[in-house]
């Protein structure tokens, strides 16, 4: 169902999740419409396929962060 506000004024997207430094998920404040950054750095609707890709990206990103933190700690 379409939100009347969005139909009149357009969606008001806010970041809902930081997947990686470059990939983020956005959610409209007024309806549940969601966007994400695709591999070209452009915004695209957050389809189940992109959700799946993002969850994989997020896992890899977290692992990388953990590893770099561990290296940082051992270097202290
Ligand atoms: Zn909206």
Features:
76 residues, 2 helices, 24% strand
Question: What does it look like?
Answer:
The protein is of the alpha+beta class and 76 residues long. The chain has one domain (4-74). Helix content is 43%, strand content 24%. The chain contains 2 helices and 4 strands, in the order αββββα. The chain has helices at 4-9, 48-74; strands spanning 13-18, 24-28, 34-37, 43-45. Strand 3 and strand 4 (43-45) form a beta hairpin. It binds zinc ion.
Give a nutshell description of this structure.
The protein has about 80 residues and is an alpha+beta fold. Helices cover about 45% and strands about 25% of the residues. The model has no long low-confidence stretch (mean pLDDT about 90).
**Biggest sheet, open or closed, and with what strands and sense?**
4 strands, antiparallel
Average of pLDDT? 91
The helix-and-strand class reads alpha+beta
Number of strands: 4
Number of helices: 2
| Strand order within the widest beta sheet | 1-2-3-4
The molecules bound to the chains, other than polymers, are: zinc ion
Number of domains: 1
Low-confidence stretches: none
- The topology string of helices and strands comes to HEEEEH
Terminal Cα span: 55 Å
Share of helical residues: 40-55%
Give me the Rg, rounded: 16 Å
Shape: elongated
Strand content: 15-25%
């Amino acid at each position: 169902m379409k939100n009347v506000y969005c139909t009149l004024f357009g969606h008001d997207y806010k970041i809902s999740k930081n997947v990686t430094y470059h990939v983020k998920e956005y959610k409209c404040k007024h309806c549940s419409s969601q966007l994400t950054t695709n591999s070209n750095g452009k915004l695209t609707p957050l389809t189940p396929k992109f959700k799946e890709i993002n969850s994989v990206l997020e896992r890899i990103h977290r692992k990388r962060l953990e590893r770099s933190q561990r290296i940082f700690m051992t270097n202290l």
